[in-house]
Design brief:
Rossmann fold; 4-stranded antiparallel beta sheet; globular
């Protein structure tokens, strides 16, 4: 089975990549959507430029696809890029977004390939605990929820800080796995990577939300 993995560089797409490798499949490409705007219905924005480094550490070819982030047309941009690849399927890290999952499935039907969403409806804490326990170094690159302040930006999750995050999620009523867009992540090392990302960034914080800007 030859597959491409849709990768934002965050925890979910890296978990999906590792899952595909554990199946014994050949991951031929990491495909990253680079959103040329401030918002996207489908794709993460912060930290996506770092997937090129991740791909190198995984020994996988990286493909970047520019999109304006407009609803529906961004899926067309992805479809055009995938149509040029010799693959049997696309793997994504969708957890609970029906919007993302259904559009990837429709696109895959048009391309006559399979769509895999191995994380679909995993429970939040099982998913997060599994990542930390299996050696994924997850850096928080953006926060936009009450309860998450500037100090979380650039933080790498540990078992202890994941417990703190869970407490905040319960108190302020946000998703501990960030599925509602409360925070964004970048995986800087993991069981599927040889070595660790070399990072240089600055913090942008407006008093309510913020993100890391990578050089």
């Amino acid at each position: 089975m030859k597959v491409a993995v849709l990768s934002s560089g965050g925890k979910d797409s890296n978990a999906a990549l590792w899952w595909a490798q554990c199946q014994g499949w050949e991951v031929t490409h990491l495909v990253t959507m680079l959103v040329q705007g401030d918002d996207s219905w489908m794709f993460q924005i912060p930290g996506t430029s770092m997937v090129e480094q991740q791909a190198a550490l995984c020994g996988i070819e990286w493909i970047s696809v520019e999109t304006n982030g407009a609803a529906e047309t961004e899926v067309d941009d992805l479809q055009k890029a995938l149509s040029k690849l010799n693959i049997d399927g696309i793997v994504a890290g969708a957890l609970r977004s029906d919007y993302q999952k259904t559009r990837l499935e429709r696109m895959s039907e048009k391309l006559n390939i399979k769509s895999f969403n191995p994380l679909w409806h995993q429970t939040s804490m099982n998913h997060m605990n599994g990542l930390v326990e299996n050696g994924f170094k997850i850096m928080i690159t953006g926060v936009s929820a009450e309860g998450l302040d500037r100090d979380w930006l650039g933080h790498i999750l540990t078992a202890d800080s994941l417990g703190e995050l869970a407490d905040l999620a319960a108190k302020y009523r946000f998703h501990v796995d960030g599925e509602g867009g409360e925070y964004e992540t970048l995986v800087i090392a993991g069981p599927h990577m040889v070595g660790q990302l070399d990072l240089h960034y600055k913090i942008e914080w407006d008093g309510i939300r913020g993100s890391l800007i990578f050089d």
